[in-house]
Amino acid sequence: MIRSLKNTRTLLVSICCIVALFCALPSTAAAASDTLSPAEVVEIDRDLNGTVIEFEGEAIGEALHADATHKWVNVLGDGMAVGVYVASDSADLVGTFGDHRHDGDIVRVSGTINVACDEHAGEFDVHAERFEIISQGEVRETPIQPWKAVVGLLGVAVFLVEWRFYGRLKERNLA
Amino acid sequence: MWIRLRLADLKVILHFVGLFVIGIGLAMLVPLVTAVVFGEWDAALDYFMGFGLALCIGMGMALGRTRGENVTHADALVITALGWLAASLIAAVPLALSGNYASYLDAVFDAISGLTTSGLTVVNDLDHMALAHNMWRHLTHLIGGQGIIVAALSLAVGLRGGAFSLYLAEGRDERILPNVLYTARFIWFVTAVYVLIGTVVLWGVNSLHLGMAPDRGLLHAFWISVAAYDTGGFGPQSMNAMYYHSYSFEIVGVFLMLAGTLNFNLHAQVWRGDRPELWRNIETRVLGINIMLLSALTAIGLAATRFLPEGFEILRKGAYHIVSANTGTGHQTVYPGQWTSDMGGIAIVAVMLAMAAGGAVSSTAGGIKALRLGVILKSIVHQVKQSIAPRSAVLKARYHHIEDKFLTPEAASAATTVFILYMATFITGGIIGAAYGYDPVQAMFESISATANVGLSTGITSSGMPVGLKIVYMVQMWGGRLEFIAVLTLIVQVLLSLGVRRKGSL
Hints:
The complex is a heterodimer. Chain A has helices at residues 2-33, 38-42, 88-91, 146-174; strands spanning 52-65, 70-77, 80-87, 102-103, 106-114, 125-135, 138-139. Chain A is of the alpha+beta class. Chain A has a domain at 34-139: CATH 2.40.50.140. Chain A is elongated, with a radius of gyration of 30 Å. Chain B has 22 helices and two strands. Chain B has helices at 7-27, 29-37, 41-62, 73-97, 104-115, 131-146, 148-154, 163-169, 180-209, 214-229, 247-261, 264-271, 277-280, 282-305, 311-326, 338-343, 345-357, 370-388, 409-435, 440-451, 467-481, 485-503; strands spanning 398-401, 403-406. A two-stranded antiparallel ribbon of chain B has the order 1-2. The longest helix of chain B has 30 residues, at 180-209. Classes of the chains: A alpha+beta, B mainly alpha.
């Protein structure tokens, strides 16, 4: 009797585990495909306000002090950037921020989205719970195009000729 | 009777427009030096090329006139309208070379927006833009805010004959000092003081409070001070004022925006020690009442939508955007799309009214202007009083603007004319935007923002918008900055010239 009860309990636990696994699998898959871009975060369905979202983008500019324990990291993607309120230790992991000379580190942020944050004067922000660097930034190529210098020099040369001509015309008119 | 321009007039016009183009070329030395200092050699070449082209083209135009003919009033209007257009076309050259604009037209859009202190932008990838290009974008606010003519006058670039006509043609209504040259220099002096104060304070905020590197902190402080004081609205990052996440930043910004929207004549009075003028003046009264009423209206709207949770946040967000709109600045701490998705109808209407109303005359602000609204309101009250007064009664309306003045029919008519021109342009731009398939409210918002040189956007303005609409907004920004008369004069002269050419007499 006790043995059959144990078997039944084992069976039930096994069924529960399998059901739980099946339930968890689609949600994990969904989470993996639900990584958003910052532009999608800005335009997110307002019903998701206050929920945890995950997105990826490039850290730009610099980390700005928010308070004693947190910093702001602005994360760019698809032409829009979102302010991420993140623990200073995590923010300090960013080695390269995007600017004219650099592509910044690509970061993955998981955190609570606030369309109008209570804590930060109604700002649109994301409070990071997880913040990781998924690829390092690099130096951007900014090729120098010598033809621009040639056109500039030609322009200055023509200007000098015109300037001399203008002076002569003025002298003639005065005479 | 329509007065046509003669060939001699055209030579004078070309000469002065050429001088403005040279001036823009010389101003490019500032971003050129910035590029060299920060080792941005690619951007340095953009400015060297722009500099060379501006000097060469400008001097070519200036060659037309070598005698000292005076500038007539009609010439002054055409010089001003063409001068702003030519300055924008040449200022766009280095921007177009930057790689941040989809086309030369887009670069011209930003150059016009910068010079007219509008702040609408179609730039791509602003967050990776060179420091030199950001310096140039903000410098266009500084040049345009004070006025290209004022800049030329203050340097005394051969504009003495007809100088006051040129000064007036640029949308300035008042001479502050007896000599127009000193007036122009005073305008630059006031600007230098406020921009310096703003830069020092914001540098402190950026470096000490936000932890920015000293050089970046200084550049951002200077750019934001220029953009706020000149009521421009550009920002060095795509997030605009949101990038900084700072209350201190917003407070300094509001101070600079309000200072920039005040009449330079009023600044002069206050600096001479006449502080009561600040609250006796009809302009400051209208501005103050307008900002308070519309801030309250915005707060009601935001409270109704429950977008913001607390009273202080509602007030802060509402007041910041009303000040930004009313002063014609356009700095914003919400995403463009949030105007329609989160802010609610009442707040949008309040912001549109604030943008349309604008700042003071003879300031860096755009819009209909507080003095004109004050005069029109006084005129309405006067009409009502007169209609209920006995027939034999002679009523006179007065208002105070630097001195006590009687409300004359001419003053009321001039104010109403400009009011009608602005309203017609707002509506026309809105209809065109709607015809392109945009939401009518958004289209009207954007049209008012462009015409009143504000720069707030609901998201229509972008590099992807139709070319036709870009051109419409460019014309609106140009016409709005010059308060239409100079642009209308240019159009009439072009039409008259075409007519003359058909008859074969030119």
